[in-house]
Design goal:
33% of the residues lie in helices and 24% in strands. It contains 2 helices and 8 strands, in the order αββαββββββ. 27% of the residues are buried. It comes from Streptomyces parvulus.
Length: 254
């Protein structure tokens, strides 16, 4: 009887060990499956994030550049055909754009300037002049003040992406149908609060100026790929040139 009992005990213990091993293998399979699913989710999330980055930093640039080029062609065609705005000859037509910004330090090419700084405007790959919270002084008015502009630094055309390449003394040129306005950079503020609207004042005292004049201000987001702060460049008008029949650019752009 003792031998039989011992054998039964051994069989029972073996069965319990087999059951435990089975449970262990089952738990292992569940854990492995969970890790596999989690890994797949991470890969999917990475792909989605990667696609979003591509969309934000590349595809929006493509779309915005197409829109800006189309609008720029319209403006230049209107100039060539001597078309006028709805308010008659001599009136500023702001529907399509008022002119083009040239900043050699940021690269070749021009940037169409339109009215307003809303996302709807800037997302078309252009620069916009401020109408709120302060009103920019347009150089075409001949009045003293601050021609303040904004553009995206990343995505949607990223027209001010290389704003950090501008140094004091560098030219900034604004082109209209009839006139080249040549500015000289005199101050750079590499970081300030996005709520600092004083940089847009008619007399931008934060730039060191104390008296009225003809100023231009470029603003965009910083650091790169964020919108936490604002980057600011100030310039002052040094001269104007009439546009000739060949639209020969001023010396600063040759």
């Amino acid at each position: 009887m003792a031998a039989t009992t011992d054998t039964e005990h051994e069989d029972t213990a073996e069965r319990e060990r087999d059951a435990a091993r089975g449970r262990g293998r089952g738990a292992g399979r569940i854990a492995a499956r969970a890790v596999s699913v989690f890994g797949e989710l991470l890969i999917t999330a990475g792909l989605v994030l990667g696609l979003f980055v591509v969309y934000s930093l590349w595809w929006t640039n493509v779309v915005a550049d197409r829109a800006a080029d189309k609008q720029a062609d319209r403006v230049r065609d209107d100039w060539a055909q001597d078309r006028v705005g709805p308010d008659g000859p001599g009136a500023l037509d702001t529907r399509a754009g008022i002119g083009f910004l040239h900043v050699p330090a940021m690269g070749k090419g021009d940037i169409l300037v339109e009215k307003g700084t809303s996302m709807k405007i800037l997302n078309d790959g252009v620069a916009g002049y401020y109408t709120d919270p302060v009103k920019a002084a347009l150089p075409t008015s001949g009045k003293e003040g601050n021609f303040s502009l904004a553009a995206h630094r990343d995505g949607h055309g990223a027209k001010f992406h290389k704003i950090d390449k501008i140094d004091e003394g560098d030219p900034i040129v604004f082109e209209t149908k009839d006139t080249w306005y040549v500015y000289k950079t005199y101050a750079v503020l590499r970081e300030t609060s996005k709520f600092n609207v004083d940089v847009l004042d008619a007399v931008p005292e934060e730039s060191g100026k104390k008296k009225p004049g003809h100023y231009i201000t470029l603003t965009t987001c910083t650091p790169v790929y964020t919108s936490k702060y604002r980057y600011v460049v100030w310039g002052e008008l040094v001269r104007t040139e009439k546009v000739d029949g060949e639209r020969t650019p001023p010396a600063e752009l040759r």
